[in-house]
């Protein structure tokens, strides 16, 4: 069997969803003839016609607001934001309208739709082409926010997102677009909101999502060589958040590191840490540590390696769990002094 | 491009068929005039609409409404908007368009639920074919365009009317909506009610365009400007715009009108405009104008006027008594309709609130 890339898996998910349901429409900037700048929509216009996959004028608020109207009219739009940092013009439409329509109308009007956002770094993109914007979306009630880390999840989470009755922000880790797996894509057909344990371990829990999952897995593999047995959780869904899987793991291991690419201050990792200390305090043998990007605007491409959490940085954090109370400010994030 | 630019251009002066004293004037050709029956109906609705507006304003003074943005003076726009819609067309109103919604046949209490403050939207938009009243400026114009396109894709000839104020035409969403509507041939009509002010900011500080209707031309949207206090012209232009929209071409109308009251009951309009200006516009009153016209052609009697007023009183009395009843509010509903199924986090929070409420009772 030929290896499948995450980009191909996403393309397959769109194809299969469009085949399964006539109401599914794909639109955005350059998604037609070109197939999207990352080729996720490759061939959809050719195979499904311009009525099903089409280019729009270059206007992000327009794309999302128009999609909302189409969702009111019974279609299921799957729109592409070309890059994370170019989705901001659509932010008002997303937060004020897409997220709230069900609630504002007490369930009478729902706008199931998927907003695909290629996000995070590690691809050497120039300014405004890499951003970790997930915290903006997870903070908005009414939105679901998911991010795949594996090829099969790219497929199944996108299918589930399209089937979901609520609007979903689908965060695609750019640097994993070209990751490959030798697998048959499977549609799990379960509701969004389940984390996956990617590696079982007993000494500490690494919690990661999207682009950080491979980093956490590599760190766990390296730690294993030193005799440290790490569990790795891939959240898959940030909203809904799978408290159950996370808390069970941390109660068992008693130690935890949360890894994210985004800046640490007030980031999604902070929410995870807070939830863990509220629920697992008596099981904890060490403070929960965050490993994140620095609190800086996304750096120029030749410096991004210094910003992004590396395997070494994760391993250092794991060392810090072993278990002194001495302060070490090197990897504490979030201090605006 | 499919249109020569001259086909898109609005008339040099606002379309008008009735002078302020109610006499007819020569307006542009190319518009079908509303029938006398239609004008009689418009008169009736304007009388009732004005009474509704006055009652809603009174309800703010009694503390029954949190806020009310009056549309007194804009009756010709509001009523014509409601009258040109067919049952299955959609209306996208703003906070100022309660009169149009009531005139569309909606229950006034449901219309005012937003402004009373017990829910964000007091009605079922699908049943009413009316979107929730929009507060963030001009965002609804994109929703209207998307829905219009969806309706065309489904093969109906229903159309959508998006209402918007003059200030809101400066927002980006309005421009994106015009562009999308033209590119996708969406059956949508944009009606700008230029009432002179965006809260306190007059039009000349808002836009340097000769008419807001010119904003359609650059996008390939046919546009027209109209005397927004002339009910005959409003109906004629809106009918033409809908004909156009149902054929897959969007249309932009700028209606020149005036907001007689302040922006809302909470605003102090004397800080930014003088009473002479208001008086001048009172002389251009759309209701008086139509009444004079209909009487002059023998199409309106004292009895007709009295009947319309009685209907308005009836509506106002009914509204007053129903708004006097305290709404029944259950805080537990806070957690409804956030998601199709509540997350575990919401279930926990709901339990917390239930415990708090129980403790308060006990
Ligand atoms: C995006 C946005 N910015 C600011 C406001 C606050 N605001 C409410 S009404 C208003 C003026 C709108 O004027 P206009 O579009 O002319 O409509 P009118 O109120 O005169 O009907 C402003 C600034 C808002 N509701 N939405």
From TrEMBL, chain A:
GO terms for molecular function: oxidoreductase activity. It is an enzyme of class 1 (oxidoreductase). Pfam families: Transket_pyr, Transketolase_C. The keyword Oxidoreductase applies. Its cofactor is thiamine diphosphate. CDD domains: TPP_PYR_E1-PDHc-beta_like (cd07036). Residues 4-179 form the Transketolase-like pyrimidine-binding domain. It comes from the Bacteria. Its EC number is 1.2.4.-. SUPFAM superfamilies: Thiamin diphosphate-binding fold (THDP-binding), TK C-terminal domain-like. Keywords: Oxidoreductase, Thiamine pyrophosphate. This is Alpha-ketoacid dehydrogenase subunit beta.
UniProtKB/TrEMBL annotation, chain B:
It comes from Kutzneria chonburiensis. CDD domains: TPP_E1_PDC_ADC_BCADC (cd02000). This is Pyruvate dehydrogenase (Acetyl-transferring) E1 component subunit alpha. NCBIfam families: PDH_E1_alph_x. Residues 44-318 form the Dehydrogenase E1 component domain. It comes from the Bacteria. Its cofactor is thiamine diphosphate. Keywords: Oxidoreductase, Pyruvate, Thiamine pyrophosphate. InterPro entries: Alpha-ketoacid_DH_E1_comp, DH_E1, PdhA/BkdA, THDP-binding.
